[in-house]
Design brief:
- The chain is built from eleven helices and eight strands.
- It is an alpha/beta fold.
- It has a single domain, classed as Rossmann fold (3-Layer(aba) Sandwich).
- The protein has an eight-stranded mixed sheet, sandwiched between helices.
- A hairpin with a 2-residue loop joins strand 1 and strand 2.
- The longest helix has 14 residues.
- The two termini are 32 Å apart.
């Protein structure tokens, strides 16, 4: 892992593989340890795959200021500057699908293709999670790390997957606990996504876009994929929140990136 100065923080990142750059970000409270290894192995065969910890998460700095989705997008732009990446494929997952949208709107010339995974366009026009799922998100800062990890596992994986893949769940639990976000930084990230909205601006996205969503996602219901895809002119939709672990969507992503 490496660190580089970006705006007011030190960002922790990794770069694997060679080829055209693919810059990927994880979701709310997540570090780059959460990425599925099969996805990273698949993308790094043909692309310079850059993953990193968002402001506040993992091993990246967590300043005690208010965060915003635009701020996260600006951090990504500066990381690309520091890595001398002018233009890249951009992939965003969950909250970071929101950051990817903001990046595509703020820096259109730097996006080759855009992949939005298990995300929405902000609360005003989106389908929200059930109250019991929302409570797990709201209450996370008050819980022990062990309880927070259990909640995360129950949200991003379906019960069938958890039961059928105990080894994978054990490994995922260990990865989540490697560099956990602090309750304070989690709250700042959560407040950033609560106040963000892209619905009215989505038609301004000019990049060819793939919208991917799990049909059993309980955190960000799959109906949100239709809303996002319908609003972006060059988007197509391909439908557990843990999209890449459960559905074999790596091939769909790679086929999309390879399109001329």
């Amino acid at each position: 892992m490496n660190k580089v100065r970006c705006n007011d923080i030190e960002i922790c990142y990794e770069a694997q593989g060679k080829g055209f750059p693919l810059v990927m970000i994880m979701g709310l409270g997540a570090s780059m340890d959460w990425w599925d290894q099969k996805l990273i192995e698949g993308t790094s065969r043909n692309y310079q795959t850059v993953i990193f910890d968002n402001r506040g998460a993992g091993r990246t700095d967590a300043p005690s200021i208010d965060y915003s989705i635009k701020m996260f997008a600006d951090d990504r732009a500066e990381l690309m500057n520091q890595l001398m990446i002018t233009r890249a494929h951009i992939l965003g997952y969950s909250m970071d699908g929101m950051i990817a949208q903001e990046f595509a709107l703020s820096y259109p010339g730097r996006v080759e293709k855009l992949a939005l995974c298990s995300t929405n366009c902000g609360a005003s026009k989106s389908f929200l999670a059930a109250p019991e799922v929302q409570m797990k998100l709201f209450g996370a800062p008050t819980k022990t790390l062990e309880d927070r990890v259990k909640d995360v596992i129950s949200i991003i994986f379906t019960p069938d997957f958890i039961e059928s893949n105990p080894g994978y769940i054990k490994q995922m639990t260990e990865r989540i606990m490697k560099a956990p976000i602090t309750p304070e930084a989690y709250t700042r990230q959560f407040n950033a996504l609560r106040t963000w909205d892209s619905y009215s601006r989505l038609p301004e996205i000019t990049a060819r876009t793939l919208v991917m969503h799990g049909k059993k996602d309980i955190l960000i219901p799959p109906e949100n994929a239709e809303i996002v895809a319908d609003r972006i002119p060059k988007a197509k939709e391909k439908s557990g929140h843990a999209l890449f672990q459960e559905t074999g969507s790596v091939n769909t992503l790679l086929e999309f990136l390879a399109l001329s």
